[in-house]
Amino acid sequence: MSEPENRLLRFGWEEWVSLPDLGLPALKAKVDTGARTSALHAYDIETFGPAARPKVRFTLHPIPGRDDLVIPCSAPIIDRREVTSSNGESEHRYVIETPIAVNGDSWPIEITLTNRATMNNRMLLGRQALLDHITIVATERFLQPQLSFEVYHSARMRQEAPNRSLRVAVLSRENNYSTRRLVEEGEKRGHTVEVIDTTRCYMAINALAPEVHYDGKRLPRYDAVIPRIGASITPYGTAVVRQFETIGTFCVNSSAGITASRDKLYAHQLMARARIGMPNTAFAASPKDTGNLIGLVGTAPLIVKLLESTQGKGVVLAETKKAAESVIDAFRGLKANFLVQDFVKEAAGEDIRCLVIGGKVVASMKRTGAEGDFRSNLHRGGAAKSVRISKEERETAIRAARTFGLNLSGVDLLRSESGPKVLEVNSSPGFEGIETSTGKNVVARLYDEIEHNVRPTPVRRRKATTRGA
C-alpha cells in the first residue's frame, strides 16, 4: 500500500475510486469536505464473529439503479459512532477501515456503513480520507482516470474477488473429528463457523420470507452451509437443507443429492443409468422365488445388504446359496428392504475410498477389513493407508459424485478384474481416516471450494428493450 507523497492529486467533486479489499473495483464517489468521515452504501448489515474481534457483513448495489448486481462484503469493525447527516438526522453506524485506490495509489481510510440507496453516489468521501496533498476543484468532476462499471460484467470479477470472512453453518449433531476440523480450519481462515444441531432447527415456510429458526430465534444469514446429516434423520435433515436452499444459501451438498445417495436402491438405479460400474445388484420387496432373485445376481458367495445400513451394519456375506436363502428369508421375515449383490472375490476384503471435492479427487485411501471380516469399514476395526489410484478409478469416482450432484462425497470403489466397481457414494464422508492415512488437509480443499462458490459472479448485461411505435 503506497501513499502518493511525491505528487499532487487533484480531485473534482465526483471521482472514480476502488475499494479492492471489499471486492469493489469501480465506484463513483462524491467528494464532500463538509463531512468528516467517509460513508459507503450498505444494507443487510449484520455483525458476526467473536466479541473480542467482531466483524460486519453487508451487501450493496455498486451501480445505481442496478439492483440485480449484489456484492457481498465483510470487514473487521473498528468502531461504532453516532453520525449526523446533512439533514440533521443522527444514526449509529459501524466503522470499518479499508484501502482506497485511485490512479495506482492507495491508502487506508475509515468508512461508515449506511443505506445510501436514494443517493446518486454509492460512496461519499469525507475530509478525513483526503490527504494533505489532494487539492479539491469543486467546480469540476472526474479529474482522475475514469473507471467503468463494465468491470462487473467481466470474468475477472470472480477471479479477483477478495477472500472475505464468511459466516458458515455446520449442520451436525456430533462433536466428532470431522465437525471439529471444519470449525478449526474455517476459523484459521478468518471465517466464523457455527455448529447447528439439525434436529433443533424448525422452519417458517412461506413464499415471501422463508426462514430457519433455532432455539427460539431466527438463524442469521449464512454464506454457506455444510450438511453433516446423519442417516437416522435423513428426511428431516434434508428438509432443513432444502429450506436453506430456498433462502438462497450456498449448501455444499444439495438436499436432492443427499437424499439420492442415502436411498441405496435409487442410488444404484442412478449409477446404472449413468453406466457407472458396480457389482451386479438385485432388489425385491417380497420375492416368492428366493432362488430366482439369487440367480439375477450370480452364484454364491453373495452380499445381502439392508437398504438402511451404514458403517457396515446390516451387511451380510452369504458364502453358499443355502446361506443366502436363509439370510434373505430372515430379512423378509423382518419386513426389511434389502439388496442382493455379487461378491467381488478379487477385492479380498479391501476397498478404496476416494474423497471428491468440487469435481476432483483430492485424496484416496485403501481400507482393509479386520482379520476375518470382509467389511473394510474403519468403524469396524479396519485399517487404512494412502493409495495411488488409476486414471480409470479417478474418472469413475468423479462421474459417481457428479451423478448425485455432490460437491463433497466419499466414493467407495472395489478393484475387480473387469475394472472399478462403485459400492457406495457417501454424502457425509468422515475426514479423520483419510487425513490421517494420507497426511492431506482435505478440509482446506473443501473451504477452497466454498470460497470459490460464494464469490460474486459477473452480472449479465441487460438486454436493450425496444418500444413499439
UniProtKB/TrEMBL annotation:
State the organism of origin: Aquicoccus porphyridii
Q: What does the sequence similarity comment in the record state about its family?
A: In the C-terminal section; belongs to the RimK family.
Query: Which named protein is this?
Result: Probable alpha-L-glutamate ligase
Q: Name one GO molecular function term.
A: metal ion binding
Which Gene3D superfamilies does the record cross-reference, listed alphabetically? 3.40.50.20, Acid Proteases, ATP-grasp fold, A domain, ATP-grasp fold, B domain
Q: Where is the ATP-grasp domain?
A: 268-451
UniProt KW keywords: ATP-binding, Ligase, Magnesium, Manganese, Metal-binding, Nucleotide-binding, Protein biosynthesis, Ribonucleoprotein, Ribosomal protein
Give the encoding gene's name. Answer: rimK
NCBIfam families in the record: PRK10446.1, rimK_fam
- Give the UniProt record's GO annotations in the biological process aspect: SOS response; translation
Quote a single Gene Ontology cellular component term: cytoplasm
Looking up Pfam families in the UniProt record yields: RimK (PF08443), Rimk_N (PF18030), Zn_protease (PF05618)
